[in-house]
Write a structure and sequence with these properties.
about 270 residues; alpha+beta; Substrate Binding Domain Of DNAk, Chain A, domain 1; five-stranded antiparallel sheet; four-stranded antiparallel sheet; 16 strands
């Protein structure tokens, strides 16, 4: 199907149009006296060269985003055309789960202009767009509960570095930490909504023999055992102004620790007992 439309000259106009998606996957464009029905497959095919050109322009940023030591937490999509499914889909192919939809995509530019005009009066500040927590075992492994470490809402502001700690005595020789990002929680505190599954899993050794073994530690090769009078464990979560979260799990009794930052290699350190 040939739309007979010069996308170069109408791209900005299309961005200003109000459109909705029907179940039959059509794009409805209101042209005053006429409503144009365009199959989404045709829209995607026609827009792809423009989207590819935009992605090519973003290449320096995407390289930083996907770097092992990147401090860029993610990309937030703004503007009406980000409602086109092909836009977030193509960006996620390039940047993975670090692509997010802005909570106010259409008026984002107007909001930014208002902030630039009178930032002091508006009192604008950064805030977390997603919550962060960890699933924990309870009742000696008989149950599981979710521990909300960072709850995102309109009042969760980022000002400097935020540190959150947890301290307890361990019950097993190996710890299992399943970290989850989420958009909100339900009435009982469970993560729901836009939920990223437990992909940040860490299984550190909580036994001194395993911590300082000459062999490389592999949790899958070690039997999990319940222990009496286990070591005191301290968890420290550091949230930077950029939104990056670093987790450090420390065995207080042996000074052994392991540190992990989302998207970066895990490191461990310790000197052991004298």
């Amino acid at each position: 199907m040939d739309l007979g439309v010069d996308l170069e000259t109408t791209y900005s106009a299309v961005a200003a149009m109000e459109f909705t998606l029907r179940r039959e996957r059509n794009l409805l464009v209101d042209l005053d006296s006429t409503i144009l029905h365009i199959p989404m497959a045709e829209v995607a095919r026609a827009c792809k060269p423009l989207i590819d050109r935009t992605i090519e322009t973003m290449e320096p940023l995407s390289s930083l985003l996907n770097g092992a030591n990147s401090d860029i937490a993610g990309i937030h999509l703004v503007g009406g055309t980000t409602s086109l499914p092909i836009v977030p889909r193509r960006l996620r192919e390039l940047c993975g789960r670090k692509v997010h939809r802005s909570p106010h995509p259409t008026p984002a530019t107007a909001i930014d202009l208002a902030v630039a005009a009178d930032a002091d009066t508006l009192g604008i500040g950064d805030r977390l767009s997603r919550g962060f927590g960890v699933f924990r075992e309870t009742e000696s492994g008989g149950g599981i509960e979710f521990d909300v470490l960072v709850l995102t809402d309109q009042t969760t502001r980022l000002a400097g570095t935020t540190i959150i700690t947890r301290k307890y005595r361990c019950r097993h020789n190996i710890g299992v930490f399943r970290f989850v990002e989420f958009s909100r929680t339900d009435a009982i505190g469970e993560p729901v909504g836009d939920l990223i599954p437990p992909r940040y899993r860490r299984s550190p050794p909580l036994d001194e023999t395993l911590q300082y073994s000459s062999a490389e530690f592999d949790a899958d090769q070690v039997e999990v055992q319940e222990i009496n009078n286990g070591h005191v464990i301290e968890e420290t979560y550091t949230i930077l102004e950029t939104g990056m979260i670093t987790a450090t799990i420390t065995d207080v009794d042996t000074d052994w620790s392991i540190t992990a930052t989302k998207g970066r290699p895990t490191t461990s350190t310790g000197t052991g007992r004298a």
